[in-house]
Write a structure and sequence with these properties.
The chain is mainly α. About 90% of the residues lie in helices and about 0% in strands. The longest helix is centred in the C-terminal third of the chain and has 29 residues. It is built from two helices and no strands. It comes from Evansella alkalicola. Keywords: Membrane, Transmembrane, Transmembrane helix.
C-alpha cells in the first residue's frame, strides 16, 4: 500500500504532462479548438490539483 502512494502521484504527473502535450499538438494542428481546451484543462487539473491532493491525503494513509 505504501508503494502505491509513492507511484500514484508520479503516474498522475506523467498523464497530466501527456495530456498537455496532446493539447499543444492539437493547437498546432488547429483543427479542433475544443479538443485543445479539453486536453489542456484536464492535464492542468491533474498536475495542479490532483497530484498535491494525493501527496497530502496519501501521506495520512501511511500512519
Amino acid at each position: 500500500m505504501g508503494g502505491l502512494i509513492i507511484v500514484l502521484p508520479i503516474i498522475t504527473v506523467l498523464i497530466g504532462l501527456y495530456l498537455i502535450t496532446l493539447g499543444l499538438w492539437e493547437l498546432r494542428e488547429g483543427v479542433n479548438r475544443n479538443q485543445y481546451i479539453k486536453y489542456m484543462f484536464t492535464g492542468l487539473f491533474l498536475l495542479v490539483l490532483v497530484t498535491p491532493m494525493i501527496w497530502l491525503f496519501g501521506s495520512s494513509l501511511l500512519i
